[in-house]
Specification:
This protein has about 170 residues and is of the alpha+beta class. The protein contains six helices and five strands. The model has no long low-confidence stretch (mean pLDDT about 85).
Length: about 170
């Protein structure tokens, strides 16, 4: 069944809003994907706050133009979906994990971050960035290391001083 012009306009407006409001968008290529594979994928994405939308490529391109996305649009061959994330890495990370599970059926084509198109390699690199919590814990560890070193050094000096005093006391006895 053909889509009417009014329906297409609604879809373009919806896609444009989603692209503008999403922190990051992943262009997902899917091939020979069965409903039995799509349902768990969508459920996993939804649980993490990622919305996946399948639409015609011409409507996507129109939405990208209306959203003012700059750069070079990655080649969109085959069937394409958009995964909209509320943070920079979650959507890319989840699609990359799905790519490993569903070999050859799901792949990252490219993406959009901060109003610019990103290539496949850039999105794959983005998917390998640790989560916010992991990055914060790493930062705290780096900030805490000099303090721990200082405390260890001060404790070492005090410990050595006490040992010297103990040795002097033993010799005088």
């Amino acid at each position: 069944m053909a889509i009417t012009k009014d329906k297409k306009k609604e879809l373009v407006v919806s896609l444009t809003d989603s692209v503008k409001n999403a922190t990051s968008t992943v262009l997902v290529g899917f091939n020979k994907l069965k409903i039995s594979d799509v349902t768990p994928l969508r459920k996993t994405l939804r649980e993490q706050g990622v919305k996946m939308v399948v639409s015609k490529k011409t409507l996507m391109k129109r939405a990208f133009n209306e959203a003012g996305i700059t750069g070079t649009l990655p080649q969109m061959d085959g069937q394409v979906a958009l995964a909209f994330g509320s943070d920079e890495v979650t959507s890319a990370k989840l699609i990359a994990e799905s790519e490993k599970k569903l070999k050859g059926m799901v792949s990252i084509i490219g993406g959009i971050l901060e109003g610019k198109f990103l290539s496949k390699s850039e999105m794959v690199a983005l998917s390998k960035v640790p989560s916010r919590e992991v990055l914060l814990s790493q930062l705290l560890n780096v900030m805490n290391a000099p303090i721990q070193g200082f405390v260890g050094t001060v404790n070492g000096v005090v410990r050595d001083f006490v040992m010297v005093l103990d040795q002097v006391a033993k010799k005088k006895q």
